[in-house]
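Human
Can I borrow your eye for a moment on a structure tokenisation matter? Give me a protein, with the fold worked out from its sequence. Write it directly below this note and I will take it from there.

Assistant
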Amino acid sequence: MASSQSQAVLDGVRDLLPTIRERADEAERLRVVPEASIKELDEVGFFRLLQPKRFDGLESDPVTFYTAVRDIASACGSTGWVSSVVGVHPWQVALFADEAQQAVWGSDTSTRLSSSYAPTGKAVITEGGFTLSGKWSFSSGCDHCSWVLLGGLVFNEEGQVVDFRTFLVPRESYTIVDVWHMVGLKGTGSNDIVVEDVFVPEAFTLSMGDTGRCFGPGQEQNPSDLYKLPFHSIFTGTITTPIIGMAMGAYTEHVEMQQKRTRAAYLGEKASLDPFAAVRIARASSEIDAAWALLTNNIREEQACVERGEKIPLGLRLRVRRDQVIGSQRAIDAIDALFEASGGRALAEGTYLQRAWRDAHAGRVHAANDPERALQMYGAHEFGHKVDPGMY
């Protein structure tokens, strides 16, 4: 259950939804979320939901965060996507050494971060840290942020890979390259990040090996159970949740359209009186509800393990990933079914349905939504085989 402060954020977000929806076309034209929307979400406290209390954050329940993301995406897919991936980063920064946390929030607790976790960069071990170089793609919302979290392989002096880390880099040390011209999630500004021989102190890095075992040095300053949950459970949920929100928005618009629609090919019959139309929305709504219920229930089960002081079982962590990738597919299947049943008017520019259809399929290609790997890991574990750590 959300605290009073967290509930106030949810209420504030819901008050913003009509305006966010009105700006959806503007976001697509600009190819970034309008600055006004980011400012309004900041003012209601959205970006502080997963931020440590010692830096004016709320340390909210992850499901509260997901609920806010879902609602935002139901009004505008691009805004929901950027809100989700930018809004989750305070959770990871809380795991960094205190020196890094202070650098991000010490003088401004409203600082925001973007990311690109694919290890396309190269880091070489140097005295006191690493020298980082590379180009990273798909850093959603980077224009609204002053730091970035980047994935990189670490090489020793012999040129061998010895680690995979996340590097925390300030805005003055990287370049944003405007490359975002896409048919879906057009308003996310998911541009490239370029870094050239930048020194990153050790304290501004996290080993993904440590992250995988739910450890980070920042847990000493931020002892909340929130920061003991698995990285890949929290972060992959931030990819599926906006897609579920898009499906909810598509469902709402479809129902409204069908209530007003008459079908000329069927002698002017009201679409809402078509029994097959009723069956379609029943199936679609069930898929959406199932995706949401499994995502939230699994996170709750992980939270319960942490609260009891127990290690989260590998089987549960794999189940989180199983239901996350299938949840994305359920939501997309629902959007597809609704879009196909909506008639030609759904094709018109400005309708939520056609935008949700494009945005959801764009979100589907994110690495976190790769179903085969997640499902194979779950099945292999059920058969008693050793599972490659991967993204669980």
